[in-house]
Amino acid sequence: MAETASTLREVWEAHKGAFLALVPPPGELTLDVSCGEGDVAPDLTALGHRVVTVAADAGPLPVADATADLVVGFLHLPGMDDTGRAVREFARVLRPGGRLCLAVEHPIASAGTFSRTEPDAEFAIAGSYFEYRPLEGYFRALEGAGFLIEDLREPRPGDGGPWDRVPLFVDLRAVRS
C-alpha cells in the first residue's frame, strides 16, 4: 500500500476521523471485518457500537444471515482475491437497510508513484491504471451484491504533502437494499 505512515496503526490514526465520519449511529451489532491488530474496534466501541471483530478472508463469515446493522472494513477489501465474493458475504450478514462502510486504497495510488517526497512531486502511472483494481471493479461488486452507494469520499491528509494532490483512499458507505 502506498502509505505516508509506517504501520497500519499509524495509517488508522491519521485516517480515522475521515472514516468515522461515514459511520452511522450504533445499532445492535457492528462487525469489524478488518480487525487485524484491533485498531478500528476500540474507536467504534467508544462511539457506542457493540463490535464483534472477525478476521475475514473471502470465505464465509462466522455470523448468521441478516444479523448485523453495520459491517466495517478498513483497508481490508483490496487484499481479497475475490472482491465480489467478499462483498456478497458482507451483504449476507447485513440486515436489509444495514450499512457497509469501507476504506480502500485508491486505485490511482496503487497504480502510480511520486518522483520525490516533496509536495509538488510529479506523480506518474507506469502501465495502465486499469491493471490496479479500478474503482469500477469495486462498484460492480457492490452493485452485484445489492448495495446502493450512499456516500463516497476521497479524503485528503491535509498535511501539505503530495497525497493532498492525489487521492490515497476511497471511503464509502453503502446500504443493503
As a percent range, the share of strand residues is: 25-35%
Q: What composes the largest sheet?
A: 6 strands, mixed
- Provide the residue-averaged pLDDT: 89
Query: Number of folding domains?
Result: 1
The CATH architecture is 3-Layer(aba) Sandwich
Number of helices: 5
Tell me the CATH superfamily.
Answer: Vaccinia Virus protein VP39
The structural class is alpha/beta
Order of helices and strands: HEHEEHEHEEHEE
The neighbouring-strand order within the major sheet is 2-1-3-4-8-7
Distance from first to last alpha carbon: 31 Å
Could you explain the architecture of this structure?
The protein has about 180 residues and is α/β, with parallel strands linked by helices. Helices cover about 25% and strands about 25% of the residues. It has one domain (about 10-175): Vaccinia Virus protein VP39 (Rossmann fold), CATH 3.40.50.150. It is built from five helices and eight strands; from the N terminus they run H-E-H-E-E-H-E-H-E-E-H-E-E. A six-stranded mixed beta sheet has the order 2-1-3-4-8-7, with helices on both faces. A two-stranded antiparallel ribbon has the order 5-6. Strand 3, helix 3 (about 85-95) and strand 4 form a beta-alpha-beta unit.
